Amino acid sequence: LARQAGAEFVAQVSHELKTPLTTIATFSELLLGYSKLSDQDRVEAVNTIHNEVERAADLINNLLNISKLETGTLPVERQRVKIQDLLQEIVDSMSKSARARQVQVELKIPPDLGSARLDKDLFRIAIDNLLNNAIKYSRPGGRVILNAEKLPENQMKISISDQGIGISPEDCERVFEKYYRSGSKEVTSRSGHGLGLYLAKRIVELHHGTISVHSELGKGTEFSIQFEAQPARLEAQA
Length: 238
Known about the structure:
Elements: H1 2-33, H2 39-71, E1 79-82, H3 83-100, E2 104-108, E3 115-118, H4 120-136, E4 143-151, E5 155-161, H5 169-172, H6 185-188, H7 196-206, E6 210-216, E7 220-228, H8 232-237
Parallel strand pairs: 2-4
Antiparallel strand pairs: 1-3, 4-5, 5-7, 6-7
């Protein structure tokens, strides 16, 4: 079983890396072979290579994490995490990407949001993927809101909403499937591998939480994560 999983992982990596590696090779040859390229063309070629390297790195990390999740070998190290600090770190790290797409990211959280026992690095991957999707599928001038709130019965909810292209009801039923991507032109025109939402769902479920999506075509999408917060009595002792 382990050997089969390893073979499948190698096949997945080989297939998914083909496009970014081909693009990197093409633009590298362009830079090396044409001495009369304008400065603007050179900058565009270097930016393309840089973007494809980042895309390949993200893909490899996602595939590695998925492989470990599916084989039960991904270590989970829970610790007390201040949710406000975690979300602020994520928004700060995404600010460059949002500005490049002319998208405003707004963080809405109460001052007494509190903490939860999570694997910080893993949980960040889940929210990173959701926020990255919201930015990617937003139109220039759009707004993405990252909201967090306390719920009854010691629950906490994090929502990421956008004003982007939206998701059809049919696609909403399948967005968390591994490798699934809508066939619509607005989706296929943007880079992606159908792994981010699948990985986010697996990570949230690993923390005994739930993830859901609500969307309307042409108006936007909201993804919500619900999970257990740290009890107030433990907050006071921390």
